[in-house]
Amino acid sequence: MRLALLAVAVSVSACAGESPPARSSPNDVVAWENGRWFDGARFVARTMYASGGIFAETPPGPIARKVDLRGGWVVPPFGDAHHHGIDAERGLDAKIGAFLSAGIFYVKNPNVIPDLLTPAVRAKINRRDSIDVAFSNGGLTSTGGHPAPLHDMLAKRGVFAGMTPADMEDHAYFFIDKDADLDAKWPRVLAGKPDFIKTFVLFANGQPTPPDYPPAFLKGLDPRMLPPIVARAHAAGLRVSAHVDTALDFRVAVDAGVDEINHMPFFLGLAFCREHATSCLVDAETAKLAASRGIVVMTTMAPHGAPPKPPTEEALAAERAQQHANFETLRAAGVPIAIGVDGISGEEPFLTAAYEAKFLHDGGFADNLALLKAWSETTARTIFPARRIGRLASGYEASFLVLDGDPIADFANVGRIRMKVKQGQEL
Prior knowledge:
The protein is of the alpha/beta class. The protein has helices at 92-101, 119-122, 148-156, 179-191, 226-235, 247-256, 270-275, 277-280, 284-292, 313-333, 353-362, 368-383; strands at 13-14, 29-38, 43-51, 54-56, 63-68, 73-75, 78-80, 104-109, 132-135, 139-141, 173-175, 197-201, 240-244, 260-262, 296-298, 337-338, 400-403, 416-422, 425-426.
């Protein structure tokens, strides 16, 4: 979870006044007619078919129902590759509704207390009429490292129902300082059945730290522990995400062979970045290495939350310049970019990746086609890499959004959602 600067509400509208969607047997063949389908580069007018929740480009049997998409622009559903909001029963229905309203079907929570993912929580997600969520459970850090102080503080405030600060270790986080700790705690990590492993790399290898940076965000794993963690995770069939703060942390994560990097290197202060440029800017060599290894980078760049003090215009401009420089370096090298907002429970308004996507668009970080591909293709695939999603083609899950306008021509059309279909079922 990051500190942020501003909060700007984003509204995503769904079409109102339409009659409830018709239902069909899951194995019926449905013809989705008169749509303009995104093929990864452009929109193509065609008819697609679905049966058993799977797409086909030709009818796999007798057509049981036809649906007229009325010339709508059809795109894969969106995802949120970094969001902490699906974490407990409180407010769950409203949060699920917020994601679905934005056309977000896939969510990745990179640090959650599994004890709070009760049967009641799990019964409402990962099903055909709801969002699908992947969880890392507690992250791996060093003793006293992030996110331990943050979770302990929240536990003291009663945020985690029925849990105290004494309950946080080996639930909200795991302390891994040496090989013996990894040996002892790895069975506990796997016992929680995580979908992936989250690690924390902050100011690694004795980097200088900003004098005004919160102490709770200054420490993570000893970099020497990251490669053996990655090796064990991969042996268990699990991908590894790494939280980073600086460009040097980014390199540590790339060298260790992680699969994802959470966060662009964060702005560390105007004076600090002037003095320590290598801590703030990813170099081209590192970006190329990340691209060659297929490492996906989550954005989490949009500011939100209440700042301790308003930034100066000069500091804000410097932050945007740093963000643009890192974003362009990664894109130029071919690093896959996924969109995530780093939202949390209790935040007002409850932000989703729609807010992050709007920030990236309004800030001119990429053109509309690149943003559409990042949000509808890369994001979904890095959340659920084993599933055939993020593409509108035969053999892929028949999940899609129908928009009222072309999002390549006007990116605001991603919020003008006429219809949502998940695994062949209209929502």
